[in-house]
Model the fold of this input.
Amino acid sequence: MAIEFTKYHGLGNDFILIDNRSSSQPVITPEQAVKLCDRHFGIGADGVIFALPGENGTDYTMRIFNSDGSEPEMCGNGIRCLAAFLADLEGEAQRSKYHIHTLGGVMTPQLMVDGQVKVDMGIPRLLASEIPTTLSPANQKVINQQLEVALKTWDVTCVNMGNPHCITFVEDVAAIPLEAIGLQFEHHPVFPQRINTEFIQVVRRDYVKMRVWERGAGITLACGTGACASLVAGVLTGRCDRAATVELPGGPLQIEWSEIDQRVYMTGPAERVFTGKID
Done:
């Protein structure tokens, strides 16, 4: 049986979207997802996203398999792409806002009139037990903690935005040897569930540059949850305002950590690339 798919990207972070609304389980396996994500022998993507029926009163459920076959709790760029995909599936009946069940909690993307997608990413989780990490005692935050990676000591701050992030601030983000050290951060023993890692250069309090190593996908052009986590880390360490532009290799995201409700809001694009069928 052929499975229809649509390819989307959010600032170059690209995904294969599958209409999975007729089943509560993904219609392909993690092993098949690895093959589809291969950029030489498959479609090519950072992950496969499934639009499943909603749970616990939500409109839909999001599941995602990374390009290595692992399953993350959530994906910021991915959920913007999912919202655009759902709007395409619904056609004239499309709604402007969706409540999406994910393994990282309920996320609420909203389709804006300018084509951007704004997502309520929820309240960041900051305790070491919530990351999870052993860098600090379980009931304490992880702010400016020292971590040894690649024979160097890094000051890191950790944030969970539905998935775990380790953020370090650097003078020149372009000089970071991400290819050499990304995997060492991801698999460091202080992170029992592995970790996404962001390197941040603060240009101004309202403008930062970011490079990312994503858990299960490696170097990507953008990471929505990572951009959110990085702004939170910037606020926690006194480097950033509560609203800022986060410049990624694939383009900018607008991130705000609201002082009113303590929720993080992410605004950025989601673009359809092409459609096809998988045998």
About this structure: The chain has a mean pLDDT of 97.
